[in-house]
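> Could you send the Radical SAM core domain-containing protein prediction when you get a chance?

Sure thing. Input:
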Amino acid sequence: MGALTLIRHNAHRVDVDGHAMLMHVPTTSLFELDGVARDVYDLFRRAPAVDPDLMRAELGPRHGPDTLSECLQSFLALDILRNAEAADIPRPVVKVEEIPLSTIILNVNTGCNLACTYCYKEDLTTPAKGQKMGFETAKASFELLLKQAHARDRVNVVFFGGEPLSNMPLIRELVAYARPRAAELGKAVDFSLTTNATLLTPELVDWFDAHRFALTVSMDGPKALHDANRKTVGGKGTYDLVARNVRMLLSRYRSRPVGGRVTLTRGVTDVIGIHDHLKNELGFHEVGFGPATSGPIAGFNLDAEALKRAFEDMKTLGRRYVEAACRGENIGFSNMHQLLTDIAQGTKKAVPCGAGLGMLAVDKDGELHLCHRFVGSNQPTYGNVAKGIDIPKLAGFIETAQDRSAYGCKTCRIRSICAGGCYHESYARQGDPFAPVWHYCDLMRDWVDFGIESYVRIMQANPSFFRSQLEPRIARSGTAREVLQ
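Output:
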């Protein structure tokens, strides 16, 4: 067999409360090492190459030859060990021949009635009148979705903006068209919407409830933090109006859980305080956090030190999540939900998200974008709803995105979870949608290690938590996050 070497970028060990956990990096599968596997792994970790006969001589007094051989074969099968002389294996690139959409995002208005300081939208116009999408464009978008989702029994329409509530006539008209049209083809359709909540009324809430919309509210926490960036065009803070409307929404809405989405910016990083206010005082079902992504010189972006502090706060909140999960409770921290879902499912991503593959965004003119974040940017479009998807052009993007070896992702231990990170984050920060989000890399590796620790502790104390809390959430999320496997 010749000398063997440890393929370090295919295996990552995390010790948790006496349990030696090994993550198989290509598949994100998690194994607990028994005594023999631990000794074999540690032996190969100490040396650049080891002859199997020497391994047996060193470890044989503690472990039988059959047990050692079985462990060796398992590591070879997982490509954790490999012949020291073997050539490296290039990352396979899956050819993209069709675009099996599950989700279409309609940017129904470029306009917004707010002037948030950190908004990434390059086509944003204020006040809310903006440039609105017409029904024929929305209808053609939905027909494109149905065509591309021919093998699916469920599709999702997301309304986005600007502020989508500023084009409610279109939303109402498309919903009235889409549901019976999908039923004709034996499909169900779900509707989603993200709003700043300033235009919500009881009548609108009841209409959304009747049509079972998945609603997310953009809100940045208690009054002082929210009002720091989320202002009207005239510069007035919006917390009082938003909080009043959120309380009304949550008191009336029954069909689906409502989540809050927080943008962390310089000076707005109190993760624990924000979560406590939005979840426990206002009553959101869950709260998720994301950093501002508006380019390298924006004054409200988080610098390296602020990012580090924010991640430490997220880990502190994550520990509270774990403590509650061990008791069978869910504190509604969506970043932890997603992290634990990736680990529990053994997520294996070739690309970071469904953008351009399971999901496309449509602008007011019917042009097709990778996702809603790219609408209005100077990045290429990929066809339009009238003529269809430019499949060769879009396939070229997706195939290029699958192999980021030139950027250093090849040896990263979280490559199957991160897959290089958000295209728009990379574009906004570095001008290149394929460049990894370097400012996150170390923090994300630490966050995944924290997720592994959290997963093991919950599994030890209360494994039923994953069935009762994460699996229903996965089912609700639909297929918008689908990626190449």
